[in-house]
Amino acid sequence: MTIFGAIEAGGTKFVCAVGSSGGGSLRTTTIPTRDPDGTFADVEAFFRSAADLGPLAGLGIASFGPVGVDPALPQYGRILATPKPGWEGTDMIARARDFLDVPIGLDTDVNAAALAEIAAIGGGLRHLAYVTVGTGIGVGLVSAGRTVHGIGHPEAGHIPVRRHPAHGDFAGLCPFHGDCLEGLAAGPAVAAAWDITPSHIPHDHPFWDVEASYLAQLCASLFLTTGPERIVLGGGVMKQERLLPLIRARTLDLLGGYVHALRTIEDMERTIVPPACGEPSGLVGAFLLAEDAAA
Amino acid sequence: MTIFGAIEAGGTKFVCAVGSSGGGSLRTTTIPTRDPDGTFADVEAFFRSAADLGPLAGLGIASFGPVGVDPALPQYGRILATPKPGWEGTDMIARARDFLDVPIGLDTDVNAAALAEIAAIGGGLRHLAYVTVGTGIGVGLVSAGRTVHGIGHPEAGHIPVRRHPAHGDFAGLCPFHGDCLEGLAAGPAVAAAWDITPSHIPHDHPFWDVEASYLAQLCASLFLTTGPERIVLGGGVMKQERLLPLIRARTLDLLGGYVHALRTIEDMERTIVPPACGEPSGLVGAFLLAEDAAA
Fold first, then answer.
1. Which residues of B191-228 are buried (b: 16+ CB within 10 A; e: fewer)?
2. Ramachandran region of residue B59, left (φ > 0), alpha (ψ -120 to 50) or beta?
3. pLDDT, position A278
4. Contact of B229 with B117, CB cutoff 8 Å
5. B172 φ/ψ sector (left φ>0, alpha ψ -120 to 50, else beta)
6. For residue B141, which phi and psi values (nearest 5 degrees)?
7. Which of B217, B226, B259 sits opposite A148 (nearest CB)?
8. Which residues make Cβ contacts (< 8 Å) with residue B239, sequence separation at least 6?
9. β-bridge pairing A24-32 and A128-133
10. A131 has which bridge partners?
11. Which of A293, B40, B123, B152 has the lowest CB atom count within 10 Å?
């Protein structure tokens, strides 16, 4: 069996694994994210210790962002402007190549998760958006079977949105944009705007309508821009299970019957969905990046 | 010399040509759009009369929308829901194949224009958005060198936007969404909202700030979603030359320094640009579609 390495590089932890997208992980470890030297020393130790499993045919890195994703540019594989101490300019690919001389694929954690969701849902899907609503709002995009890169990678969590009147004068928490989508609707913004306990939010609390209205604007904009066949909504905030049907209804309302394939609530139920990937999707996506790099 | 056919199929006119994207048009005609039978009878007559130029290697159709663009679906090449009498369900490809048995490529007029702008700008661009602001707002997208299709084709002219306070209670003109981008910022909305003569709008009129604020939201959303290397702004409304620098400044403001490559007004001047394609870009794009279909 051909095996690969996978790194899901996050701001709080690095998850490393050896295995494959289809066969799962044979061995994994979780490393707390500190400075690059310390973190990558542990990553190297893990892969060296896993050498008994056999040689790796490739490595995939699903990285936190912003990160250079265009192989044609000098910043490919490097962490760009970030508030995380010590990480700006870190070359994720060079760090890994120091101890693993194999083909390396790299993309954002959310683009990798989008690839993993495409694989998990199956059925020949080619266009998908993966959205995680947690401490931030991350968006990964697959169009025509490939992750979307342009002048950077997708950052649609930061699009401008119409403010909900019930949010009053809440300024939003995004350090760059104030009241962009992430500034209004990510977990910390929810906590700052409302005095609510996540485990028990009253059904009549304005949170539901406010949060659904913002995430529906993202869904509508994505449908109208790249036209994903599925929008997968995950992350900590989406564990509020009442949100998903509210977002579907608001998105349907926003689209107003304009898009041929998105005219009924059944269309919304089919296209706006919770994650299907059982394992951590960023890690599965990292295996897919490794397999693509080795192909 | 290999020659191709091109049809730019618009709601008010069909422009037909024989030639190539590089060599230009050898012969063209403009046909007023009526019902499908009458219009295509004239299209057929043009191509039959142009037979003396030699056999065509392919045909490209740059069509008004909404139109099916996925070759895997039964509605491929068909006009979808449209208020234009008689056109809904019309199979553009079958109509053309009735008299031209050659490989046929089809895309939206704005996706075709995006291809034409990529070719006109040159320099190895792979990611571009083409926006036309006229009687409607159309958006064509090229990502990684290919036009973007998903569950439909891009319809980003209809994204929700933040209303500008100076627009007061203007309800917007979009029959589907009221105050979506097109409903607030396309030509008819400008005419309905303000009592202004397009040839002489006072410099202190609120139109400038209102219009720039809406189109800047589109630019920011596009940069944050598919990350085009260039956003080309064309169409009748953009003939107001003061708009372009205002849109650049507002987009820069909206992005707030978040995107690595888009941090200065010079970045905006390089990336938000007027059309570069000298000939009608939809027609040039139709030649490119023909050449791709024949390749």
1. eebbeeeeeebeeeebbbebbbbbbbbbbbbbbbbbbb
2. beta
3. 82
4. no
5. left
6. -130, 135
7. B226
8. none
9. unpaired
10. A139, A233
11. B123
Residue B242, H or E segment: none
Helix spans in chain A (H): 36-49, 92-97, 109-121, 181-185, 187-193, 206-225, 243-255, 265-271, 281-294
Distance CA A62, CA A6 (A): 8
CB A103 within 8 A of CB A111: no
Q: What's the whole-number mean pLDDT along residues A220-229?
A: 97
Contact B226 A225 (CB under 8 A): yes
How high is the ipTM of this complex?
0.95
Across the interface, whether the CB atoms of B160 and A221 are under 8 A apart is answered yes
Portion 149-168 of B in contact with A at CB < 8 A: 149-156, 158-163
Q: Is A261 on the interface with B (CB under 8 A)?
A: yes
**Residue ranges in chain B whose pLDDT is less than 50:** none
CB-based contact, A148 to chain B, within 8 Å? yes
Paired with A6 in beta bridges are: A17, A60
pTM, 2 dp: 0.95
B111 touches chain A (CB under 8 A): no
Partner A contacted by B80 (CB < 8 A): yes
Note whether A224 contacts B258, CB cutoff 8 Å.
no
The CA distance from A19 to the nearest CA of chain B, in Å, is 30
Minimum CA–CA partner of A67 in chain B: B260
Q: Cβ of B108 under 8 Å from any chain A Cβ?
A: no
pLDDT in the model for residue B98: 95
Q: How do strand A24-32 and strand A13-20 relate by DSSP bridges? A: antiparallel
Tell me which of B108, B139, B158, B272 to substitute to probe the interface with A (most A C-beta atoms closer than 10 Å). B158
DSSP letter at B263 equals -
pLDDT tops 90 at residue A200? no
Separation between Cα atoms, residue A276 and residue A233, nearest integer Å: 10
Instruction: Determine, for residues A224 and B260 on separate chains, whether the beta-carbon distance falls below 8 Å.
Output: no
At A62, which amino acid appears? A
Which domains can be identified in chain B, with CATH numbers? 3-109+278-294 (3.30.420.40), 113-273 (3.30.420.40)
Q: How far apart are CA A155 and CA B220, in angstroms?
A: 10
For chain B, the residue count is 295
